[in-house]
Amino acid sequence: MEETISLKELLETLKKRLSLIVSITFIAAIISGVVSYFFLTPIYQASTQILVNQAKNDQQVYNYNEVQTNLQLINTYNVIIKSPAILDKVVDELDLGMNATKLNEKITVGSEKDSQVVNVSVQDPNPKTAALIANKTAEVFKKEIANIMNVNNVNILAKAEVAEDPSPIKPRPLLNIAIAIVVGLMAGVGIAFLLEYFDTTVKDEQVIEKLIGVPVLGSIATIDDEKLKDSKMRSAERNARLRGDTIGS
What we know:
Elements lengths: L6 H10 L1 H22 L4 E9 L11 H18 L2 H11 L5 H7 E4 L6 E8 L2 H23 L4 E5 L14 H26 L6 H8 L12 H24 L1
Subcellular location: Cell membrane
GO molecular function: protein tyrosine kinase activity
Organism: Neobacillus citreus
């Protein structure tokens, strides 16, 4: 026989385990907040923009084929920017104390579709260091690309700058706490239903009817010992008063 669970039973389970669900959600939010604010290192990002475009004089006009050539070169440039040929020089000139592989992990290079602008973004715990690396990478690339590919179509469009009060891009404590609340809530509900599923104790007559398949004819109420003693004492006092009244009459 299939056992079905009604919506009312689900709500009763949630109500019964509400304190557990709230506790798990609260603990998850607290842990996420503590880790985000006190244990995770803030990471800042600085970006510079490189324009891939052949320098023109007053006699030159817009050339569609040249633009398409520049666009096709951008993917190649994106790889070259993060290559040891560029990053080794950046490490040496800035004396960063790391190799090109480690620096490569800090740098992200990308461009919008059909755009001749390449964005070089650097992430670092120090916002000034991030801006310094981004600018130096752009400078070294502009200088070295002329020797690597024998072209002169790279210009620095915008340099990375450090704001007066920079904000880290990660971690995001509020977002982490919100995610932790959702995860904690889901975990709490799941644990509540799991505990209810493994709880095989008989709690009321409805459960007995489901188990044995016959109606319950009667039930025995639970008698509290203290209430039973009070009841006996009141009964004894009542009987004593009745005997006294009988003797007096």
